Amino acid sequence: MRINVVLACGVCQSRNYSTEKNKETTSERIEMKKFCKSCQERTLHRETK
């Protein structure tokens, strides 16, 4: 079962991206390096609740 999750910037806490993850195989929160439009650089984005 895939669920929609929202990714927030680790620096400015801006919620920039949304993606899907498989809840059955991935139980922990997703972390990805993405470009933040507010910070104007690539930062670590984490899954929010």
Describe it.
The protein has 49 residues and is mostly beta strands. The chain has one domain (2-48): Rubrerythrin, domain 2 (Single Sheet), CATH 2.20.28. It contains no helices and four strands. A four-stranded antiparallel sheet has the order 2-1-4-3, with no helix packed on it. A hairpin with a 4-residue loop joins strand 3 (31-36) and strand 4. The two termini are 18 Å apart. 6% of the residues are buried. GO terms for molecular function: structural constituent of ribosome.
Uncertain stretches of 5 or more adjacent residues: none
Mean pLDDT across all residues, rounded?
95
Q: Tell me the span between the first and last alpha carbons.
A: 18 Å
Q: Work out the radius of gyration.
A: 11 Å
Please render the helix and strand layout as text.
Blueprint: E1 2-9, E2 15-22, E3 31-36, E4 41-47
Antiparallel strand pairs: 1-2, 1-4, 3-4
